[in-house]
Amino acid sequence: MNSRTCYEGCKGCCYKLMTSLCGLCIAMYWGITFAYIAFYHIWFATPYLRGFSIFAGSCQKCIGTIANCCCAPICEACGICLSNIAMRKMS
User: Which spans are transmembrane here (predicted)?
Assistant: First the structure.
């Protein structure tokens, strides 16, 4: 019974000592890490993605216009030529 009390007391003291010494450093590290992540996302990533989205929308319109001007007439001509193909069942 005394050995158990001694064990529990030593374990509790060591835990409290290590927590007070190491816990502060670890808490500071995680606080700095989360602050950096929040700063990065708020001031860099989100504005960059918004700007990229605006730029990509204008590129999409330009490429769509070029595709409609160049590819659409070719596809329509091929469609007209190939629409007259008739298939017959051979026995």
Answer: 21-43
